[in-house]
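INTERNAL AUDIT FORM
Audit reference: QA-55
Scope: verify that the stored structure record matches its stored sequence.
Auditor: D.O.
Record contents follow.
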Amino acid sequence: MGEKDITEKILADYNDVFADIMNGLLFAGEQRILPEALENTSIHSQYKAEDEKVHELERDVAKYWKEKEVELAICGIENQSVVEKNMPFRVIGYDGTAYRSQLLEERKKILPVVTIVLYFGTDRHWNSKKNIKSLMEIPEGLDKFVNDYSMQVFEIAWLTEEEIERFQSDFRIVANFFVKKRKNKDYIPDDPTEIKHVDEALKLLQVMTGDDRYKEMFKKKKEVHSMCDVAERLEKMGIAKGIELGREEEKKASRVEFILRVLEMKGGVDEKTRKRIEEEPDVDLLDIWFTKALKANTVQEFEQALD
């Protein structure tokens, strides 16, 4: 996934969102996991390798779930915006270290570990293998002795309307956004539903889409209450950027015109030099060239000053 500051709280860290994701995807919307039944747990898992050094694996989100049938379960969520071929090996690493941690604690009862992968890609389905045996070349005769391990991937942008309706938290807004974005690359957010965790929702959109405009909204997130507000802000930012670009183009055109006028007064400008001046995008450099054009006695002297 894109870069994420691990010191920042992400959307699924909130118990209401975490529980909602699990209930919506694992239990078809049935409210099996309650937010108050979740406890934070370390996203870091340590293990000792052959080099005698302690290594660490990090999950995106991990929670403890206390419930009647299962005294404690560890649930993890991994966020992905691109397909990662070796993801099944990462998942088995997370789960394996979680079980090993329980063994080191000498638990009387080993508790189940659940890790799911949320895939936010909109260009294609998850087209890589989801189990480890399919990613290995196993010699003939050994296949039945190699244990397999599969991971659960949920393609958020391909959820149906019925599946999206199962969510009750901000994740419904997020899921709806990615589904619409997959169907229409130019989709303008139009969901009027109020966003509870504005900052974290915007961060998720920024990280998973790579669009830094969502990051710019963090500074004035109090003005954002729904995706409709997001759309309005995007439009304003687009207009502002257009005006800024327009001004830059206007300044560039005037500089080019001034330079060529000065040079025409000192002799003819050949096509190569004219093209170089017209295609230069740096306005500050054009200012320098304008000064050189004024000081030069001839066009040839100006051209030499450029080199």
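Auditor finding: record pair retrieved intact. Confidence is low (pLDDT under 50) at residues 1-8, 44-57, 239-244.
Action required: none
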